[in-house]
């Protein structure tokens, strides 16, 4: 079969798009040319000819073909996709966690780029950018009026090229220019800290190439500070997915050897696989097993996993496996429900097709597709309740989503009503120039859900959500 990478989608700013995917770098489309619908293909050729000759102005033939392929694939489900040159490049950058740029985690505030955090060791970090800085101009272009994607595109570029930013620093009430030389950036997908003596927090924001090594390194640092660790919180909130092998490895860190972590099943033989808590399932390129470096206490340390509506795909694999084996208490909100497998096959050196080929299942055989992982303990986002949960989209909310195969997901009228009411509320607050207080930063002292997870580990009372309910699946009558 050649080199295979199990990869997943990425987190676009403000939206989750996780996906469990197989990438065959050397592969081309399967030779399934028999029994083609000739009459329909003749119609397609006729339409192509009419558009080419009769349209009001000349059209690019290659673009017509590309758009036709894209439309055909997009009609299948939300996660099948045709990658042109640009989107395939972005896809591969996302799965490696590497890109060329200045190295900031960012958001938008008042139409400007806000530096959430400079990535440690990056050009932006070395240039002295700080959390809270506002970027008002990129080279000669004003940021006001740009979309997030447009701003990101202008800050990225080729290695060793310069970009000049104009920065407004609120704390000093001044603006200043800073010139930064772009270089390859590696996203830090694992963070950790000792939140109080005996208890640690470890966050995985995405499953990428270096995630397992970073996970092992962070756990080793935790145990050096706290040799007798009493409890660990594994934070998978807003983790959109990533490399399948990384999710299997992180599950294996906490589970007995050779435990089944996840299975996949579909129409083609390659889609019927079982992944276990063993090096054969998570070492993609051979080499030494990084999990051998872990302290023995990891297998038995009391564990809470935090999830929410933004936890998708590979993060759901981890939560599902640890829940099925009762190795951890899952706390938070019902997850996204991205339980389908996409296979990416290259069509040319610069284009590829991502197509759904299987569903994946937890060790007990439960399909997560369009349902998600239901926490053992439901939590609100804050002590005041759920501020943004009603607005978040899950897999079951997407048009043409694949059903679980174990009963179709019901469109919940109560959830739809709550979303509409929340949307109206935020629109009214925006009209009055009064923005709702955003949820606190994950891992901070104000993180309500983290505080509840620590209470659980200590055997103290937990403030369970009074409003959150499981999204039920209906009985499949087909």
From TrEMBL:
GO molecular function, one term: endopeptidase activity
PROSITE patterns: PDZ (PS50106)
Comp. bias intervals (Basic and acidic residues): 409-431
Keyword tags: Hydrolase, Protease, Serine protease
One GO term of the biological process aspect: proteolysis
UniProt region (Disordered), positions on chain: 401-446
Stored InterPro entries: ClpP/crotonase-like_dom_sf (IPR029045), CtpA/B_N (IPR055210), PDZ (IPR001478), PDZ_sf (IPR036034), Peptidase_S41A (IPR004447), Tail-specific_protease (IPR005151)
Cellular component GO terms, alphabetical: outer membrane-bounded periplasmic space
Family: Belongs to the peptidase S41A family.
Listed name of the protein: S41 family peptidase
């Amino acid at each position: 079969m050649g080199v295979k990478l199990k990869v997943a989608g990425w987190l676009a700013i403000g939206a989750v798009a996780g996906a469990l995917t197989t990438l065959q770098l050397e592969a081309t489309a399967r030779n399934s040319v028999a029994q083609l619908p000739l009459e329909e293909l003749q119609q397609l050729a006729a339409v192509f000819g009419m558009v080419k000759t009769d349209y009001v102005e000349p059209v690019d033939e290659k673009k017509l073909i590309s758009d036709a392929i894209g439309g055909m694939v997009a009609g299948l489900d939300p996660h099948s996709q045709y990658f042109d040159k640009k989107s395939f490049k972005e896809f591969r950058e996302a799965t490696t966690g590497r890109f060329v740029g200045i190295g900031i985690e960012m958001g938008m505030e008042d139409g400007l780029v806000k530096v959430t955090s400079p990535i440690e060791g990056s050009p932006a970090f070395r240039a002295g950018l700080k959390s809270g800085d506002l970027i008002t101009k990129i080279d000669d272009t004003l940021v006001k009026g740009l979309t997030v994607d447009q701003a990101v595109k202008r800050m990225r570029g080729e290695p060793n090229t310069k970009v000049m930013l104009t920065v407004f620093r609120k704390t000093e009430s001044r603006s200043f220019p800073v010139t930064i030389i772009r270089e390859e950036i590696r996203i830090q997908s694992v963070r950790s800290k000792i939140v109080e003596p005996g208890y640690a927090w470890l966050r995985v924001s995405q499953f990428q190439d270096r995630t397992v090594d970073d996970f092992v390194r962070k756990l080793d640092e935790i145990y050096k500070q706290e040799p007798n660790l009493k409890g660990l919180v594994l934070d998978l909130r807003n983790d959109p997915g990533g490399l399948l092998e990384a999710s299997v490895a992180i599950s294996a860190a906490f589970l007995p050897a050779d435990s089944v972590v996840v299975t996949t099943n579909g129409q083609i033989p390659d889609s019927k696989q079982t992944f276990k808590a063993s090096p054969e399932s998570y070492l993609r390129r051979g080499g030494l097993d990084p999990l051998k470096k872990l302290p023995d206490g990891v297998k038995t340390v009391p564990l809470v996993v935090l999830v929410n509506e933004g936890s998708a795909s590979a993060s759901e694999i981890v939560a599902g496996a640890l829940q099925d084996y009762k190795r951890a208490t899952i706390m938070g909100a019902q997850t996204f429900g991205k339980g389908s497998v996409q296979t990416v096959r290259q069509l040319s050196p610069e284009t590829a097709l991502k197509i759904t080929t299987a569903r994946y299942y937890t060790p007990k055989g439960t399909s997560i597709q369009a349902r998600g992982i239901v926490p053992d303990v439901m939590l609100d986002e804050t002590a005041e309740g759920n501020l943004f949960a009603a607005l978040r989209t899950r897999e079951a909310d997407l048009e043409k989503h694949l059903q679980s195969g174990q009963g179709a997901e019901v469109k919940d009228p109560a959830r739809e009503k709550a979303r509409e009411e929340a949307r109206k509320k935020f629109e009214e607050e925006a009209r009055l120039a009064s923005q709702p207080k955003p949820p606190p930063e994950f891992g901070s002292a104000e993180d309500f859900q983290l505080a509840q997870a620590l209470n659980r580990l200590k055997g103290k009372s937990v403030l369970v959500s009074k409003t959150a309910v499981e999204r039920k699946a209906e009985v499949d009558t087909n």
